[in-house]
Design brief:
Elements lengths: L1 E10 L6 H19 L2 E6 L6 E10 L2 H16 L5 E11 L4
Antiparallel strand pairs: 1-3, 1-4, 2-3
Length: 98
């Protein structure tokens, strides 16, 4: 079993209020959950207008598949016009030696 996690530190330059920010982030989270069956949550910066941090996680039987899912999520986030990625951190946890 392999668990992959990614932490995306994001900027939302056009947000002029928390409402604007939440609308953008909520849409992103829903799309990642629904399209790719990933676990996604806003994990930090909830009270900052132009900044957000989301966490994405998946469980797979192989590291290759887990990496593929995180790569897909990263490409999706990169494709969002309202968002700039400031930093991405990816980790893998395995209960076997692959």
């Amino acid at each position: 079993m392999v668990i992959a996690s990614a932490r995306y530190e994001l900027r939302i330059p056009a947000a002029s209020s928390l409402k604007d920010k939440r609308q953008v982030i909520r849409g992103l989270i829903e799309r990642l959950r629904n399209r790719y069956n990933l676990s996604v949550a806003e994990v930090a910066d909830q009270d900052q207008w132009r900044k957000a941090t989301i966490g994405v996680a998946c469980v797979s039987s192989t590291q290759h598949h887990a990496r593929h899912l995180i790569d897909i999520a990263t490409r999706h986030v990169e494709g969002c016009l309202e968002i700039e990625i400031a930093r991405v951190a990816v980790d893998f946890f395995s209960d076997t030696d692959e």
